[in-house]
Amino acid sequence: MTIIDGKEVAAALRKEISVEVASMVADGKPAPHLVAILVGDDGASQTYVGHKEKCCNEVGFDSTIIRLPESTTEEELLAEIIKLNEDDTVDGFIVQLPIPKHISEQKVIEAIDPKKDVDGFHPVNSGRMISSLPSYLPATPDGILSLLKYYKIETSGKHCVVLGRSNIVGRPMANLLSQKGWDCTVTICHSRTKNLKEMVSSADIVVAAIGISEFVTGDMIKPGAVVIDVGITRVKSDKTKSGWKLLGDVKFDEVAPKCSFITPVPGGVGPMTIISLMKNTLKAAKKEIY
Ligand code: L34
Fold it and tell me: Which of 20, 180, 279, 290 satisfies CB 3.0 to 4.6 Å to 115 for a cystine?
């Protein structure tokens, strides 16, 4: 059993990106510039956006965080997005999710210029992705593909079960794995799936992205399966200094001994989500897609 080291893979890709940025800057071009909008004060979002800013610094990107209060109106947020769409010094930007409930997530996503949509959430980008056209790929699924590639995990003809059908992870992941080059046979399971345990038991590759901590247990896993854990839930703990710990969607201690490969939480998919956002921002600066 191999524990996939997302931090190691992210570090390797970070190095590749840094080299490219250094050569762009040496040619007199501006460094890629990523902007993140953070609305409200969700603790996890603060951490994730902080990691994104740190990674920008490490690869030589310019980065800006726009912090807006929880009370921001939809109109105000849309106005901020329009400004960024029109700002030539900004290559790409994201609105960190979740956003407050009084703002329509869909309106926000559709207000972003697809050319600057480095999250790949705009329907133009997801539509292009489904048609195998060049597009910004959503960061978490793209990060998972990078892990599979780095560890030379065979996907062709394998049965992959994706748990979860979100627009951000489950659905794009299932679609990408079914595309040419990855060639998986894919099943999407969700809260209404019947015989979920049997479905998962038949999988060569399991991608768990349902947001229920420790949902996938040892008895569900076929021996030798590859298990990718996207879940990240904060729970209180009296065993850690911080007073809380992170749990994945997979019961790691039970599942790991049965796997060929497994991602840990933290240190698995999370760091790859960040690096894939950097890849998209570099593509935006180089105008590689649009
Ligand atoms: N717009 N919203 C937008 N784009 C995204 O790509 C995201 N996502 C998800 C939530 N909302 C978003 C992220 O950035 C999840 N996500 C994310 C990013 C980074 C990490 C986890 C999720 C991460 O850094 N994980 C670390 C541990 C972090 C910690 O200590 O809490 C890890 O090792 O898994």
Answer: 290
Residues in the chain: 290
CA of 140 to the centre of ligand 1 (A): 9
The pTM score is 0.98
Residue written as token pair 């992170």: 246
Whether the CB of 119 sits within 6 Å of ligand 1: yes
The reply to whether ligand 1 has any atom less than 6 angstroms from the CB of 48 is yes
Q: Ligand 1 center to residue 27 CA distance, Å?
A: 33
Q: Tens of pLDDT along 126-169?
A: 999 999 999 999 999 999 999 999 999 999 999 999 999 999 99
Q: Where are the domains of the chain?
A: 28-113, 139-269
Fold of 28-113: Rossmann fold (3.40.50)
Q: Which atom of ligand 1 is nearest to the CA of 139?
A: 6
* Structural fold of domain 139-269: Rossmann fold (3.40.50)
For residue range 200-248, list pLDDT tens digits in order: 999 999 999 999 999 999 999 999 999 999 999 999 999 999 899 999 9
Q: Which pLDDT score, from 0 to 100, does residue 52 have? A: 98
When the pLDDT of each residue in the chain is averaged and rounded to a whole number, the result is 98
The answer to whether domain 28-113 and domain 139-269 are alike in fold is yes
Closest ligand 1 atom to 51 CA: 24
